[in-house]
Write a structure and sequence with these properties.
It is built from eight helices and seven strands, in the order E-H-E-H-E-H-E-H-E-H-E-H-H-H-E. It is α/β, with parallel strands linked by helices. It starts with 8 loop residues before the first strand and ends in an 8-residue tail after the last strand.
């Protein structure tokens, strides 16, 4: 199947590692012109070099961007538009907020999580919409968590603001459909990333278990019997942002190996 992504202008936020990096790699494999961003320039340089070597696609670029900084989001989108003529695809992504329960956080932590995991998505969407509306075409996908379907213990900040992203995307799907701009939300289950490893180690310490015991126990709860691979998640994201998707918008998809049992 031709996904129709060759030459398309793609921005992938928080793409120096994890799911963002895996997704940028898949877009590059499809021949897209990809701009990756994160706060760490050294990591971005290494990521771009790795993607170019793996895909033989030289149209991969980077720009540093702190997603909690509105000016840097504007500069990122302008950079991609000037480089590639427009913006066809936006991949909204950001690192997760700290783990903890309600009693662990004061107002500053709530505000920081809001800026990181919800308002950053709002701002990035705001910046790309003029380009997408002008060309009457665009794809936006928001990376969240499996908590959009079933809350996760000890992740109250993530549970709260990831759900807000779903409401944002559902509302925007109604507004943007007339312009042929499709927006969807995708949540990973237990995908083998540094973020998941970090959370597993926190859980292991809290329960007085080893990291390996936590991983083994979690794998038994996943019908597929294993953690997912970043590229498995990335392929689903790329499909939703491609020309092969012409009618799916406002939806939420989990890539979780059957872990979440909620309807």
């Amino acid at each position: 199947m031709d996904l129709g992504l060759k030459g398309k202008s793609v921005i992938v936020m928080a793409a120096s590692k994890g799911l963002g990096k895996a997704t940028a790699l898949q877009f590059a494999h499809e021949g897209a012109h990809v701009v990756v961003s994160s706060r760490n320039e050294e990591d971005l340089i290494a990521t771009v070099a790795e993607i170019k070597e793996s895909t033989a696609n030289n149209n991969v670029f980077y720009k540093t961007c702190d997603v909690t900084n509105p000016d840097e989001i504007k500069e990122l989108v302008q950079f991609a538009a000037e480089l590639n003529g427009t913006v066809d695809v936006l991949v909204n992504n950001a690192g997760g907020p700290p783990a903890g329960g309600f009693a662990n956080f004061e107002d500053d932590a709530w505000q920081n999580a809001f800026e990181l995991n919800l308002l950053s998505f709002v701002r990035a969407i705001r910046e790309v919409l003029p380009y997408m509306k002008e060309q009457q075409s665009g794809r936006i996908i928001n990376f969240t968590s499996s908590s959009i379907k079933q809350s996760i213990d000890n992740l109250i900040l993530s549970n709260t603001f990831r759900a807000g992203v779903v409401g944002l995307a559902k509302s925007l799907s109604q507004e943007l459909a007339r312009d042929n701009i499709l927006i969807n939300t995708i949540g990973p289950g237990r995908i083998a990333t540094e973020r998941v490893e970090h959370l597993d180690k926190i859980r292991a310490e809290k329960l007085g278990l080893s990291y390996k015991e936590i991983v083994s126990s979690t794998e038994k709860s996943i019908p597929m019997g294993r953690y997912g691979l970043p590229e498995e998640f990335a392929k689903q994201a790329v499909f939703l942002c491609s020309a092969a998707n012409t009618y799916t918008t406002g939806q939420t998809l989990l890539v979780d190996g059957g872990l979440v049992k909620a309807l």
